[in-house]
Structure formats: C-alpha cells, structure tokens
Amino acid sequence: MDKLTFICFLVLLVLPLRGADKDFQDQFKVVAKLDNLEVEEGDDELFEELLDIPFWESQRGSKNLVNVDGFGATGDGKSDDTQAFVKAWKQVCSTPRSVFLVPEGRRYLVNATRFEGPCSNKLIIQIDGTIVAPDEPNDWDPKSPRTWLGFYNLTNTLFQGKGVIDGSGAKWWAASCKKNKSNPCKGAPTALTIDSSSGVRVKGLTIQNSQQMNFIIARSDAVRVTDVVVSAPEDSPNTDGIHITGSTNVILQNCKIGTGDDCVSIVNASSNIKMKNIYCGPGHGISIGSLGKDNSTGIVEKVVLENAFLRGSTNGLRIKTWQGGSGHVRSIRYQNVRMENVSNPIIIDQFYCDSPKSCQNQTSAVEISQIMYRNVTGTSKSKNAMKFACSDTVPCTNIVLNNINLQRTDGTVETYCNSAAGIINGYVKPSAECLSSSDKDMGTIQENEDDITTTRSEHIIHTEL
Fold first, then answer.
1. Nearest to 267, CA basis, from 300, 307, 233
2. 284, 328, 459, 462: which is the annotated catalytic residue?
3. Is the pTM value of this prediction over 0.85?
4. What range does the record give for the signal peptide (predicted)?
5. Fewer beta carbons within 10 Å, N or C terminal of the chain?
6. Cα(81)–Cα(109) distance, integer angstroms
7. Measured between alpha carbons, how far is 289 from 357 in angstroms, rounded to an integer?
8. Alpha carbon of 250 to those of 42, 285, 422: distances in Å?
C-alpha cells in the first residue's frame, strides 16, 4: 500500500469516529438540557398578605367583605341570582382590599356572566357555597355561547374556598354530536375561565360537570392552581379538566382530575408550564395539543410534569398534532409517573384526526423534539405501551427514555416507531431500539421478540371521536 493510499485509508477511518463523537456530544447536551429543565415557580410575595386566613378577620388589616346575599341573592338553587352576583362584583372590583363572598351551605343559580377587571389590587374571591349553571341548553344566553363564568383582566387575585362550581352539563352532553352523530357539532360553554390576567392563584375549589371544558386558563401569566378537584363523568364529551392556551408561567399542583376528555391539555403559545402531584383518571390523559389543525402554527415549550398517577385513562402522556400544521413542541420532561391500566401510556401522534371524516395526508407537520420520559412505570391496557407515530417529512428527534418499566397483565407489550429517533438510557421496557433506527418506517419492537414487524403507513392515521 503506497503512502497516499494509506493516508486516505486513515482518513476514512477517522471521519466516522469524529461524526460519532459529535453525535454523542449533541445527545449529551440534549439530555443535560432536559435534565436541568426547570420552570420558575415565582415568588409568593404578591400573595403573602392574601394568604391570611380567615381573610376578613386578618390581624394584618381588615378586609371589605362583599357578600352576594347582601345584593339580593337567595341561594335556593332555583331563583336566578345572576344580577346579585353582577352587582356584588361591581362593588368588590372597585373597592381596595375586598373579598367577594359566596357563602357556604347554599346553591346559587347563575347564568352566563362576565366578571371584568381591572379591579383594585389584592382581590379575594371566596367561594364556599355552590354556584350552579342553568341546565337547559335552549335557555342559554346566545351572547355567551362558550363561557359560563368568565373572569378577565385581573391582577394579583386569589380564588379560594371549599365551594363547588357546577356546570349542570348533562343535557349539553346528550346533545353533543359525539354522543349522537345525528346532532350538529357545536361548541358549549366552559365552566370557569380566567383570561388576560396575571398573578392569579386558584386554591381548593371543586369544578364539576361542565357543559364542555371545565377550567380554561387563557392568555394569562403567572397563574398557580393548587388543591383543585375537577370532575365530570367518563362519557361526558370534550370535558377537558384544565385547558391552558396562550399562557406562560403556569403551575398546577396537588390537583385531582377525572373527566371525559384530557385531564390537562396544553395548546398553542404556552410555555413554562409546571405540573406536580397530579392525579388523572378517568380521562384522555395529560396532553400537549392538539396543535396544527387547519394548517395552523402551534408552539408549546418548556413543560415539566413531576409526580403523577394516571389510572384507567385512555391515554397517558400524549403529544398530539394534526398533519399540515407547523411550529414546534420542544423541551418537555415527564418524570416520576405511575400508570395503572392506562391505554397508550406514552404516545406521540403526529397523525391526530379528531374528525368524523378521514384526514388527508400532508407533508408539513409540527416539529417535535427534546422530549424526556424518566421513571415512568406501571401497567398498559393496550399492546402498544409506547407509540411514536411521527411524520416522514418532519420526524420526531431527541426522544429521551430513561428508566421506563411498562408491563401488561395479560400479554406482552411493544414499542411502535415511525420516523422517530432518540436516546435510550437505563432500563427501558418494552424495548425501544426502534428509536435509534434511521429508517423512516421503523416498525414495531415487540418485547422478548427479535423480529421487527413493519407497519403500513395507513395504520398510523388515527381518529378519536
């Protein structure tokens, strides 16, 4: 071998090593970034005075108590108390250091109402009784088709109490096209909405039986939700528990959610979201998305879920996007999650299609990358314990699996991959070697089996009704 040939041979040997080393460094950086991903929890200075209990007997200063009963509310569950709430709100909003009180032991029938700010600083909304919505869809105010109790433009406000917000949704669910396909598909009200607000805390309330979504946090910043219970029947359609849209710096902590749709759903223009100590079930899991519908742009980033228990839900940790969309989902960490009898415990679905008709194949997609699953254990109700159904043209990248143990009580579990690549660290069951494959259609990896069963692309078109 002459000298030139020998040098060329050495170069051919070294180049792959350098490439592999760079890949390793890049992967290491991704893992380190996700490992250190933190969501700022903010400081409680804004709420320090608000947290004095009881609020209106605080030794640190008197509160102006505004009781809805003092404005003509009867609280018998039959008489319309809407105007009493409106009048009480008008006074409390303009009065510094005030408390809007819904007394315990009574049921207040309230129709669709907008509670507008801005209000005087450090407002407290104390709900100890039950607020109930009219149960007849035909009698609903047509000027407010999607909102029941809506709070707007609030700053440094505390919602608290042991009371209940009850949407009386049974007749709305019966009229849904998802219950009866002969009915027209139309939206229904959300029980509680906090919109265009900042520095808001919601603590201790129960939100139940909403007409559609139970609780929406929209276009807001610095919202903390703690010790909240959200409840709706398993067969109630579109009753997402807590829905976050266009919001930043949101914390959900110590919440118990059981609904007929996503326990938590996080959609476009949301970032810096932390969920801790979350119970989900029944429901459709803890979801990012859907994103990208009707060729729209969807962006969600910096989401952390720590310490969660999901029981009997139809999905576990889910990211769902429509074909034809754009944008990205990135910097997501799921950590210390226990599953019990959950279908699709880990699922990324870039072929989401919540439509009575089949969705057309499209090449553009919302990019999904830097997603970490760490310490996820439990039992899968379905054969596919992990499913990464990603776009051929916009593959999922940097999916990190670290200490995964998902089993099935009555059979084997497997991992399905299509156009997904990632990093495997520690014990991972079922095997997820398909993540390291470079093939576009990576097939299915079955636990305890050596063969790879390829899957046709049409099998990854999903419809959820």
1. 300
2. 284
3. yes
4. 1-20
5. N
6. 6
7. 20
8. 10, 19, 28
